[in-house]
């Protein structure tokens, strides 16, 4: 029987893998997971490659939430099986999960600024904003 923390690790690995399948970071993620799942065996490498390519195909249709949920469950089982057979792969799986870039959220921001009576508004969403004021009568630098 697989321990709870390995089950949680497999779930985290599955979630990271499925999330990465629709991103630009897929090839790097795919290569890490092929290495992890293949364990140096050519047959296992081929099977992992084929399954990961199928995952990529599924993930490229983001409207199919049910298929993505099924993919997460299937990959969790595969990763649990891997960890049960090769418990020493846990650190490698943790490293693979950590290397998966987090997807940017689809958050949107709205800013509205207004000034009255000769007032000024300085707004910034991301990054630095530097404002240098030159007193009247002083030359600009």
Features:
141 residues; mainly alpha
Question: What is the compact description of this entry?
Answer:
With 141 residues, the protein is mostly helical. Helix content is 56%, strand content 0%.
What is the element layout, followed by pairings?
Elements: H1 4-20, H2 26-38, H3 42-59, H4 65-85, H5 90-99
Helix pairs in contact: 1-4, 1-5, 2-3, 2-5
Q: Determine Rg (CA atoms, Å).
A: 24 Å
Largest β-sheet summary: none
| Low-confidence runs | none
Helix content: 55-70%
Shape estimate: elongated
- What is the ordering of alpha helices and beta strands? HHHHH
Structural class: mainly alpha
Beta fraction: under 5%
| Amino-to-carboxy terminus distance | 72 Å
> Mean pLDDT, rounded to whole units?
85
Structure description:
There is one protein chain. This protein is mainly alpha-helical and 141 residues long. It has a domain at 4-99. 56% of the residues lie in helices and 0% in strands. It is built from 5 helices and no strands. It has helices spanning 4-20, 26-38, 42-59, 65-85, 90-99. Helix 1 (4-20) packs parallel to helix 5. It is elongated. The relative contact order is 0.15. The mean pLDDT is 85.
